[in-house]
Amino acid sequence: MRKCIRCGSDMKENCAIKVEGAGYGIVLSSDKNKLFGGRIGRPEVAICPKCGEVSVYMKDVEKLKW
Questions:
Q1: SS3 28
Q2: 48: buried, middle or exposed (CB in 10 Å: 19+, 13-18, 0-12)?
Q3: What angle do CA 12, 53, 26 make, to 5 degrees?
Q4: What does the alpha-carbon distance between residue 14 and residue 27 come to, in Å, rounded to a whole number?
Q5: Is 62 left (phi over 0), alpha (psi -120 to 50) or beta?
Q6: Is residue 46 within 8 Å of 52, Cβ to Cβ?
Q7: What is the pLDDT of residues 6-65, one digit of tens each?
């Protein structure tokens, strides 16, 4: 369970980022010069129900170890 960095409350995890007006989301990549190269994955979002703090994080951090 993720804890809010602002107030210490338990955060609601496994939320997603949606781009308004588009059918696609956000994908993180290790190579900004390639369109689909080096995909790390999709970020997850946690939201604090008490203060509204939003935390964007990667669930699978193994892909970040290059």
A1: strand
A2: buried
A3: 75
A4: 15
A5: alpha
A6: no
A7: 999 999 999 988 777 766 767 777 776 766 667 777 889 999 999 999 999 888 777 666
